[in-house]
C-alpha cells in the first residue's frame, strides 16, 4: 500500500508540471488513436468515438502550446551562441534548432487561428505544410543534438576505461547515459511521426495508417513518462 501511495504522489507531482502533464496527455491522445486505428474496420462506430477523443485531446495540447514561444524566446536568449556547449558542432546544432523553433511556434499559431476560424488565412493548406516541415526540422535537429551528446559522453566513458579507471564514472552518470539512449529512441519515433505528416510524395508523408501513428505516438509518450520518473529518482 505504501509503494502505491508513493507512486500516486509521484505521478501527481509529475502532472502538476506542464511538461509532465503534456506527456500524459500525449499518451492519452495516441493511445486513443491506437484504439481507433485497431477498430477502424472491426467496429467503425467505436473507432469514430476514440478518434474524436484523440482529436479533442490533441486540440487541447495544441491550445496549451500557444504560449510556448514566450519561454522559448527566453531560452534562446539565455542559450546565446552556445558558449557553454562541449564543442562547436553542438553549438551550431543548438543555435540552428533555436532559430527553427522560433519560426515554428508562430506558424503553428497561424494554423491554430485558421483552424478555429478566428483568422481568415489564405492558402491554409500551405501553412499546414509549412508547419509540418518546421516540425520535422525541429525534431531532426533535436535528434542530431541528442546523438552528438550521447557520442561525446560515450567518448568520455571509453577514455575512462582506456585509462584503466572505470570507477571514475559513477553509477549516476552511467544511468544518465543510458537514459540518453532512450531519448534517442523516443525522438526517433517522434521523427518518424513528424515526417508522416508531410504531404504525400515526400519521404513517407501520408503513408502511415491511424494504427501505426497511434502505436508510434503511444510508445514515444510512454518512453517520455518513464524518463521523467527515472530522472526524478536519479536526482534524489
TrEMBL record:
The gene is LOC111596603. The keyword Acetylation does not apply. Keywords: Membrane, Peroxisome. The keyword Membrane applies. It is found in: Peroxisome membrane. Pfam families: PEX11. GO terms for biological process: peroxisome fission. Its main location: membrane. InterPro entries: PEX11, PEX11C_met. GO terms for cellular component: peroxisomal membrane. This is Peroxisomal membrane protein 11C.
Amino acid at each position: 500500500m505504501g509503494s502505491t501511495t508513493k507512486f500516486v504522489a509521484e505521478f501527481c507531482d509529475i502532472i502538476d508540471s506542464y511538461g509532465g502533464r503534456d506527456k500524459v496527455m500525449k499518451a492519452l491522445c495516441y493511445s486513443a488513436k491506437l484504439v481507433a486505428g485497431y477498430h477502424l474496420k472491426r467496429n467503425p462506430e467505436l473507432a469514430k468515438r476514440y478518434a474524436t477523443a484523440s482529436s479533442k485531446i490533441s486540440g487541447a495540447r495544441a491550445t496549451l502550446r500557444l504560449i510556448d514561444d514566450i519561454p522559448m524566446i527566453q531560452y534562446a536568449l539565455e542559450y546565446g551562441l552556445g558558449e557553454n556547449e562541449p564543442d562547436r558542432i553542438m553549438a551550431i546544432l543548438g543555435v540552428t534548432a533555436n532559430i527553427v523553433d522560433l519560426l515554428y511556434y508562430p506558424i503553428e499559431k497561424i494554423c491554430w487561428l485558421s483552424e478555429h476560424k478566428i483568422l481568415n488565412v489564405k492558402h491554409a493548406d500551405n501553412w499546414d505544410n509549412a508547419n509540418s516541415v518546421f516540425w520535422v526540422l525541429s525534431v531532426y535537429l533535436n535528434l542530431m543534438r541528442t546523438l552528438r551528446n550521447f557520442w561525446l559522453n560515450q567518448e568520455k566513458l571509453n577514455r575512462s576505461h582506456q585509462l584503466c579507471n572505470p570507477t571514475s564514472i559513477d553509477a549516476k552518470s552511467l544511468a544518465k547515459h543510458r537514459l540518453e539512449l532512450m531519448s534517442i529512441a523516443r525522438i526517433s519515433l517522434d521523427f518518424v511521426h513528424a515526417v508522416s505528416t508531410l504531404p504525400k510524395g515526400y519521404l513517407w508523408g501520408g503513408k502511415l495508417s491511424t494504427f501505426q501513428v497511434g502505436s508510434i505516438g503511444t510508445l514515444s509518450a510512454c518512453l517520455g513518462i518513464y524518463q521523467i520518473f527515472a530522472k526524478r529518482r536519479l536526482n534524489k
